[in-house]
Amino acid sequence: MVQAEVTSIDPVAKLPEIEEWSPFHYRDSASVRAGISDLNAMLRGQKIAIVGLGGTGSYILDLIAKTEVSEIHLIDADEFLHHNAFRARGAASLAQVVRRGKKVDYFAEMYAHFRAGVIPHPVYVETANAPDLLTGMDFIFLTDENTDEVAEVAQWMRETGMPFIDVGMGISQTPQGLNGTVRTTLITAETPPIITVPRGVADDEYAVNIQVAEANALNAALAV
Fold first, then answer.
1. CB 150 within 8 A of CB 197
2. Per-residue pLDDT tens for 161-177?
3. pTM higher than 0.70 for the full model?
4. Taking Cα atoms as reference points, which of 165, 170, 179 lies closest to residue 204?
């Protein structure tokens, strides 16, 4: 009797069952309320890869995880350390930080409570493993460090026609405060050759080490 009364007052108290195809562990009522279920369904079944789970990559994951893509592959071999907690999405506990686990495992565990299909790959992307990791992906977000190896992977993706977005950011300190720039480059089979991915350049202005959560979140939002 009590349960029936609660349900009649608050429909959310008894959530309807989700469809078999849904990656979520409970129904996406937000899309229904906003009237955009048909638009969200356009992403259904897609496989997405995020290469690099630093600050920007973690916010990209948070946004993509709220969509109906079937798989989100996380590719990064780095450990989740103290400094990551202060610019990545979420609020890591002290126990999670001192554990020094892999970034991809930390984020896969976080989103496992919300949805299925978040798959960790605790490796660095290289030309040798890129075909195995990235072939078959519908879209790729490249947020990894500015290295020659990553530049070669980006070139390989471009030559094979894989659509991807490359992101970067740089923040410098001035007497007036912080001065920052974010970069978002979309590469598809139709992208003119004049548009390049600025990777592997030692003095790249986007390679400045200062990062803050606000710029990481902005970079991710623009990319998504």
1. no
2. 999 999 988 777 888 88
3. yes
4. 170
